[in-house]
Amino acid sequence: MTPTIAVRNLWKVFGPRPDRVVGSPLADLPRAELRARTGCLAAVRDVSFEVARNEVFVVMGLSGSGKSTLVRCLTRLIEPTSGEIEIDGEAVRAMSAKRLRDLRRHRVAMVFQHFGLLPHRSVLDNAAYGLEIQGVSRADRYRKAAEVLELVGLTGHEQQLPEELSGGMQQRVGLARALATDPEVLLFDEPFSALDPLIRRDMQAEVRRLHAEVGKTMVFITHDLAEALTLGDRIAVLRDGELVQVGTPEELVGAPADGYVEDFVRDVPRADVLTLRWIMRPAVDGEEYEDTPLPQDTVIRDAVPRVLRAARPILVTDGDQRVGVVDAERLLPALLGHRRQVPA
Amino acid sequence: MTAVLAKPAPPRERNGRNPRGPWSRRKEPLTRRTVMGLSVVATVVAYLIFRTAAAADAPDAAAFRLFGDVRDWVDDNRDTHPLFLYGINYLRLGVRVLVEGIQAGLTGLGLPGLVAVAGAVAFVLGGWRPALLAVAGFLGFGFLGLWPESVDTLALTLTAVLLAVLIGVPIGVLAARVGWFGAALRPVLDVMQILPTFAYLAPMTLLFLIGSPAAVVATLIYAVPVTIRITELGIAGVAPSAVEAATAQGSTARQLLTKVRLPMARPTLVLAVNQTIMMALSMVVVTALIDAPGLGVNILRALERVNVGAAFDAGLAIVLMAIVLDRVTTAAARRQRRDWRLAVPVLAAAALIAALPIPGDLPTVSFAKPVNDLTGWLELHWYDGTEWLKNTVSAVLLNPLENLLVTTPWWLFVLAVLVFGLLLAGWRAAVVAALAAAGLSGLGLYQHAMQTLATVLVATALTMLIGIAAGVLCARNDRLAAVARPVLDAAQTMPSFVYLLPAVALFGASRFTAIVAAVIFAVPPVVRLVERGIRDVPPTVVEAALSAGSTPGQLLWKVQLPMARGGLLLAANQGIVMVLAMVVVGGLVGAGALGYDVVAGFSQREDFGRGLSAGFAIVLLGVLLDRLTQGFNRTKGPSR
Amino acid sequence: MRKLLPAVLASVLLAGCGGATSDAGGSTPSAGSKGTVKLAINPWVGYEANAAVVGYLLEHELGYTVEKKNLKEEISWQGFETGEVDAVLENWGHDDLKKTYIEEKKTAVDAGPTGNTGTIGWYVPQWLADEHPDITDGANLNKYADLFKTSESGGKGQLLDGDPSYVTNDEALVSNLKLNYKVVYSGSEAALIKAAQQATAQKKPLLFYFYEPQWLFAKEKYARVKLPAYTAGCDADPKKVACDYPDYKLDKVVSKKFADSGGAAYQLIKNFTWTNDDQNLVSDYLTNQGMDADKAAEKWVKEHESTWKPWIPAGS
Questions:
Q1: Is the minimum CB–CB distance between B15 and chain A shorter than 8 Å?
Q2: What is the tens place of the pLDDT at every residue in B86-124?
Q3: What predicted TM-score, i.e. pTM, was given to this entire model?
Q4: Who wins on pLDDT, A54 or B83?
Q5: More confident site: B16 or B203
Q6: Nearest by CB to B104, which of C5, C73, C239?
Q7: How far apart are CA B23 and CA A162, in angstroms?
Q8: What residue spans of chain C are helical by DSSP H?
Q9: A112 with B15: Cβ contact below 8 A
């Protein structure tokens, strides 16, 4: 099956005559040196990845790592310098302006950090904007907009202006606007980082719920590791424009590719992310086990009560196959020992 | 990922944010839209039933007689009544002494001396760049062969500015410090600022007769609101923390003013001087109509002879003066510290040059001939085109609108202003505007006011059309904007009078000429405001609209223009006030109506009352238009 | 100007004792010594011709300094009062002003005729009169109103007037003669002439206010439209005028002060008198030969010594 999004060797260089950088020795220079030598900033460097249908793909990195540039390159809100982007197998970079507009209108929608709502339009009109510019009739677009507003829990607020809503509710409007055109792909550019922590958690739950209800392929940009871990099927870590590691949350936490990622994940409560697979040991001959085994993709924290209550080790299975054993001895380090103390 | 299938929690974040912020224009409730629709229908029906035959204004309204009587009284008592003997005549004398003193001083320096002194002063105030500009500009007066006229204009301007600063700064400080005073002053300044230059002239000649003193007083009154406004702004804008700190150290109120508030407001005060100079310069040129000497006389004479070339030279001199004065004062405002060590020798050198008997004869250059040749060529080859344009605009826009307005009975006009004012601009603006509308017929000049209004509306529509188009282009094209900026700068420092010339050259004497001049005059600020409005649209919103697949056109119509609404309305407000000023001046070149009445008023004795009435009518028209557009802006404007 | 300052200051001090009158601080024409003569320049070229020649003679024959002030007619008269103006060199009637300033205020004095006869009237281009011979009768004007329609005349015929300051009864005439016309002001003599020339050159119908002496009549033909004949006093009430304009004996007016102490300059102005042809000649120099006032006057003065010699007062 073709991946919904495929990105190969994508470069984005800002500055004077950016094309000379890619494919030349300049490309190998570290960012700072490149900047000093040419005045160019390589925001995205040779990035390749694929996103499968209905996958939630999180791109994570600190500010300035190029993640916002990367997501804007996908629909050419920022024109890439080189590389290939395919959406459903169609080369985005080869699209005409009209074809590109069709892509943005029907297939890919985006949610922005600062919402980007139109302050002079009602919530309903904001949600219907995408349909309006496609030329959908008023009645149809209002019906559809009302539906998505209900989906994000804004029924009753249709006639208000964005300014009258709180930040979280405004972002729900942003979400509704993106959903209204029924796109295959949703792009999120740090959508919740401007919100209060409590509301952020609500909104994350909202995204999870929507994903469950409507499917959709999602690319989600964040600098918040907890958010990445909660939402992402897979996470890409970006540093200075380069991909450092792409993997599932537990791969990242369990096997950081380098010191950078390790630094990132070191405060993560491992028990919440890692599954039994990461702590099981091989079975020892002659051992006696509990009657009911645990599947290997059980998150450690969920296994704690059983393991601790059990008198004997518990078998870990992958389907019908026994793949290992956990006991309290294996469990405790994951619960306690991996949280390095940060000097106060 | 575990799905949370529960329906979303009811959004809990209905926190205490202002539920109806400044953007809060809910979808207008149906009732309101109905009222609007009904009002439109009612107005149309009332018009159809009650429309009049547009009888010309009576030649002899009560107001004219009243003003005529006032004039006769003043004439009879000018040399006997104590108000004149001990008041106004002294004022006139004092101003005259001041003007002639300054003028004698400037003339006495001679051309080389004045150039040197101007350069030195510019150097001390602003640095070497403005100094070079000042030297070049002042030499330019000599090269254009307009040295004495330029000095006259400069003298009048400086006198008026000096007085405006002496009067305006203390008032501004007071307005900023004393709440009720500032509040009481504000509406007065509002009205003063929308008065077209022309409206001042007749009352000035009545009190001060013709000549320089009347010109200086008119200029002073025209320019002083700006001085007061900006001073007030500067003083009010001083950081409270600095005042608090100084108070904590035991400063007296006086020390607070002289050591904290005034020094901290210095850049704003210099800006106030800058703006005062610009206003004064444009007014001084107009006062040529009441026998003030200077470059305005050249322009006026050129207008009378339809000699565009001669006017071009004088216009160029005015532009040079405006640019020099503007750049020097702007540089002075930016400059924080001056190098006095260099200043002393530079000033001394200038004084030396002034003292030396250097001959001031320069070869003169005149653009009159090439400009006249060009004008002649245009007249010959563009005649059909310009004529067609003039006739089309007149026939399609101007005449129908004028016809509609003049055949509307005055009471219906007042009623319509009131009703639509209420619906669109709020009750306060509506009442003021309606009173102004009623005043127009009270003055006996309803017909002429409606004719002027028609011209103003057409000119404003064209101004907005062109201004918005150009503003949008500039906002979308950085390179164009970079080219346009200095042009707009220069255009905005130019006095209004200058703009009559190209219009007259192309279109002869007609209302359309006034429209063209008004459009040229008012477009630059509109372009500015529109460009800024569009550029101020947050980039996220633009990005969001683009990512939804908006075409450039959709982006403009559905996002950028609606969001730049505040800027557009402000532009409309500014545009309409500027257009009014210019249309009235257009009375000089065949635009007729109120502007003509004013001109006739101080050139025909029997028309004096009518002229003065027309002056007041212009004021009322200005108030009406300003209140409506501004009220609209305030009630519906965005928060930014 | 520097000489002026002490004089002004002195008058301020003087005035300080007993209130200031409206002419306080105004410079006095320097009698005796060759001083400055301030000539008002009204906005039509015939007037400028007078001023050019008089100014030239004052400067070159009598040694005065001449200051020319571009002023409308009414404002020039106000200038007598304030001391801004010494002389008006071509006055068209203005009986109301004479009454106010000469009889009542006594700030101005009649300085005799200029020798020019002034006529004011309504004119059409000759070709139009040839096409429609009856158009020159004012009674038939309504029949031809459509011919004269323009963008400015609001569906009526257009009657093109000049500068708002000119002597004119046209608005009253149009309404009192019940003409279906609208008076449109071109704003200046130059605009009026330009329109007239265009009307001739391009065969565009035009009805316009015009006057003699006027150089244009020597170049192109225009026919006068007859209005009900002038009778003495028929224009007494400016609002009720329904008759044609009278012939004006153009004259000169000077300020009282100048008459009293103007010396030779006043004498010259008083003596100045010439014919319409003289004036038209100088006007033509000014308008069509591209000469400035000085050059035009110089040329005329060179060629017409016998005309101006008698103006120069004896003993100067």
A1: yes
A2: 777 777 888 888 888 888 888 877 787 888 888 888 888
A3: 0.77
A4: A54
A5: B203
A6: C5
A7: 9
A8: 4-18, 45-60, 73-82, 95-97, 126-131, 170-176, 189-201, 216-219, 256-261, 263-271, 276-288, 293-303, 305-308
A9: no
- A-B Cβ pairs (cutoff 8 Å, strict): 146
Contact B543 A231 (CB under 8 A): no
Helix, strand, coil shares, percent, chain A, to 5: 40, 20, 35
* CA angle, residues B201, B205, B207, in degrees to nearest 5: 120
pLDDT over 50 (residue C15): no
Are A123 and A195 part of one and the same domain? yes
Q: Which of A230, A252, A269 is the last residue of a domain?
A: A269
| B289: its two tokens | 């109509």
Alpha-carbon gap: B202 to the closest alpha carbon of chain C (Å): 11
The two structure tokens encoding residue B18: 């202002």
Asked if the structure places residue B109 within a domain, the reply is no
Q: What are the helix (H) ranges across A248-327? A: 249-254, 259-265, 270-273, 300-309
- Give C-chain residues touching B588 at CB under 8 angstroms: 187
Domain that holds residue B511: 367-640
**How do residues B294-343 score in pLDDT, each as one tens digit?**
888 888 877 777 777 788 888 888 888 888 888 888 888 776 666 667 77
- Of A238, A269, A300, the position where a domain reaches its end is A269
- Predicted-complex ipTM score: 0.80
Q: Which of B6, B12, B547 sits opposite A110 (nearest CB)?
A: B547
Return the residue of B nearest to C165 by Cα: B603
Q: Is A153 left (phi over 0), alpha (psi -120 to 50) or beta?
A: left
Nearest-angstrom CA–CA distance, B462 and B390: 13
**Closest Cα of chain B to A105: distance in Å?**
5
Mutate to test the interface with C, among B407, B605, B606 (most CBs of C within 10 A): B605
Identify the chains in contact with A, defined as 3+ C-beta pairs within 8 A. B
What is the Cα–Cα distance from A112 to B540, expressed in whole angstroms? 7
Domain holding A321, by residue range, is 271-337
CATH homologous superfamily, domain C118-247: Glycine betaine-binding periplasmic protein; domain 2 (3.40.190.100)
Is residue A278 a part of any domain in this protein?
yes
Q: Do chains B and A touch (3 or more CB pairs under 8 A)?
A: yes
pLDDT digits (tens, 9 = 90+) for B444-494: 888 888 888 999 999 999 999 999 999 989 888 888 888 888 788 777 767
Measured CA to CA, the distance from residue B386 to residue C52 in angstroms comes to 36
The least confident of B47-51, B85-89, B112-116, C48-52 is: B85-89
